User: Which sequence fits this backbone?
């Protein structure tokens, strides 16, 4: 019996400890009705519904700054003491608040100083009232303009969770609960919490975007769409992907030592976005503290539609590159698919196929038809792994506003982990490029000694170098695909398309590696170079990555996977041997060279001798 009693008291104590203590703010019993989610009323105009639900947890868990206020501290007692209420006077946010708790001295607080600060800021009363009208008057006549930004989200959809609230409060209570007669919970919310944003990063951007992306307000005040340009920046993309420490509007437009309501325009000497103060704003301890002063010239609100500087020129150049490089490649790929659908074939295809089978039946023939050595295949797979990793960790950041982007980033453990993996893959790609250059130089040196030719002559005759003959073959292939020529051009070990892809990989690796390094080590960059270099690097990096993905994802994948001659996948990068169908279609010249080297008779020659 005694053990049962002890167990009962232990369970009861545990339940009491886990149950949140209801604060004394609702001494008037307002939550008896207002705790129900469906409590609402049709407005006098008969066109709108007013919701009167108040989340009880807001008080029981102290989820906001008003958790210790009675309802009549904001609403007039004479208007709400009777039921139904006769509320006619809008809440005045500048009214004096009374915080009166048992056994404590009454504390009073006023928001009138905030009103004074707003009057001197860019968000003065006239601006807010104009914005309210342009937004469709969400605030009724007489309501405080504070409510345009402060909608007190805890009343409708929950605020800061109890876990986030208890962590710092618990640390304060370790000492202050016994040694100082203060309410540490109230101290935290009214003092400590004021030094940090009251909203999440995404909520903060939504609040600012309500006006700063509204076309009518932008036109009225002659403002650019700061929301779109912010969300296009890395800061904005980080926010979209859930990064809470990403810089938001207040981090740049309000200094840490000033009140957020005293926001000033860039023309003011006290504004943190004034050109004189901007370097220090970017180098705040929580931001780019190790960067150079030139960091501030990097564009955060880059809007290519409003500027025609070098950034606009770079964008135009890359659009041209996409059109004039990927465009022809895409056209050729489509025409090749049409060739397959219509069943059209080269007149000499049968003879080339027979020759390929003959050569592959002998060891000497297979050796001559090996297009890639083991060393080359290893380099290729290193490139594949790096490129795939870079795409999976980079493009979700570029398209951060898409639902799939957050899902992919979360697979890598969040934005921080994805960025680190992106950086490491980029570093390996750069090292791989450096190694490939060394590999080429050693091979070039050996070839030069073996042939006894000059360096330039040997270089120009390397297998992957583009020659005038390749340009003629490319032109001939286009004419053949357009049915303006009957015979397909005969290509050697590497056809012109593969050579152009190889050059593209070289160009892309250099551009992506250089620009990525500049952005990765932005502290060093901005100490030695203008910060605008980061904006230019970002444009180059983004557009070159997009161009590379188009070529690899469409042109290259079709030729090595989806083409009928190699489907389901070319074995060239696994075994070094190219499938017969691919040899016949794209490397007939290599077949003839191998036949000549091994003494294999070409079927056409046999037929003529017969």
Assistant:
């Amino acid at each position: 019996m005694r053990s049962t009693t002890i167990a009962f008291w232990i369970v009861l104590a545990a339940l009491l400890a886990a149950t949140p203590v209801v604060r004394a703010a609702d001494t008037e019993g307002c939550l008896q009705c207002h705790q129900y989610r469906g409590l609402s009323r049709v407005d006098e105009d008969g066109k709108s519904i007013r919701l009167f639900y108040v989340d009880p947890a807001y008080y029981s868990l102290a989820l906001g700054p008003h958790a210790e206020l009675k309802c009549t501290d904001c609403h007039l007692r004479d208007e709400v003491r009777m039921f139904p209420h006769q509320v006619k006077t809008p809440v005045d946010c500048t009214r004096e608040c009374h915080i009166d708790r048992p056994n404590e001295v009454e504390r009073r607080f006023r928001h009138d100083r905030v009103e004074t600060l707003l009057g001197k800021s860019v968000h003065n009363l006239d601006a807010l009232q104009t914005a309210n009208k342009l937004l469709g008057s969400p605030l009724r006549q007489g309501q405080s303009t504070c409510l345009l930004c402060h909608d007190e989200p805890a009343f409708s959809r929950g605020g800061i969770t109890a876990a986030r609230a208890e962590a710092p409060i618990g640390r304060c209570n370790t000492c202050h609960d016994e040694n100082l007669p203060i309410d540490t919970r109230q101290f935290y919310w009214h003092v400590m919490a004021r030094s940090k944003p009251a909203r999440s990063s995404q909520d903060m951007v939504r609040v600012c975007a309500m006006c700063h992306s509204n076309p009518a307000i932008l036109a009225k005040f002659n403002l650019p769409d700061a929301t779109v340009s912010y969300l296009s920046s890395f800061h904005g993309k980080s926010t979209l992907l859930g990064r809470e420490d990403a810089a938001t509007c207040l981090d740049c437009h309000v200094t840490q030592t000033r009140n957020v309501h005293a926001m000033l325009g860039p023309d003011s000497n006290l504004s943190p976005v004034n050109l004189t103060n901007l370097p220090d704003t970017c180098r705040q301890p929580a931001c780019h503290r190790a960067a150079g002063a030139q960091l501030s010239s990097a564009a955060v609100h880059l809007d290519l539609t409003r500027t025609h500087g070098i950034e606009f020129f770079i964008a135009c150049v890359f659009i041209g590159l996409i059109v004039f490089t990927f465009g022809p490649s895409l056209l050729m790929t489509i025409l090749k698919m049409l060739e397959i659908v219509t069943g059209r074939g080269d007149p000499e295809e049968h003879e080339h196929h027979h020759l390929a089978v003959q050569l592959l039946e002998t060891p000497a023939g297979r050796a001559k038809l090996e297009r890639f050595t083991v060393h080359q295949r290893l380099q290729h797979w290193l490139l594949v792994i790096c490129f795939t990793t870079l795409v999976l960790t980079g493009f979700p950041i570029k398209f951060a506003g898409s639902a799939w982007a957050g899902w992919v980033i979360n697979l890598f453990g969040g934005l921080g982990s994805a960025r680190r993996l992106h950086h490491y893959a980029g570093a390996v790609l750069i090292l791989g490029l450096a190694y490939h250059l060394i590999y080429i130089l050693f091979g070039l040196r050996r070839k030069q000694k073996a042939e006894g030719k000059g360096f330039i002559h040997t270089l120009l005759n390397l297998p992957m170098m583009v020659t005038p003959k390749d340009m003629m073959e490319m032109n001939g292939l286009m004419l053949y695909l357009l049915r303006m020529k009957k015979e397909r051009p005969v290509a050697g070990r590497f056809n012109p398309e593969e050579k152009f892809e190889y050059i593209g990989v070289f160009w892309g690796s250099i551009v992506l590696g250089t620009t990525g390094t500049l952005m990765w080590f932005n502290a060093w960059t901005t100490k030695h170079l203008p910060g605008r270099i980061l904006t230019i690097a970002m444009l180059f990096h983004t557009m070159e990555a997009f161009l590379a993905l188009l070529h690899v994802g469409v042109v290259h994948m079709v030729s090595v996977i989806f083409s009928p001659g190699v489907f389901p996948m070319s074995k060239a990068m696994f075994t070094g041997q190219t499938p017969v169908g691919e040899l016949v279609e794209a490397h007939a010249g290599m077949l003839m060279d191998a036949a000549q080297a091994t003494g294999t008779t070409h079927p056409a020659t046999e037929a003529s001798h017969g």
Summary: The two ends are 113 Å apart (CA to CA). The mean pLDDT is 81. Strands lie at 40-42, 49-51, 97-99, 107-109. Residues 173 and 179 are 9 Å apart (CA to CA).
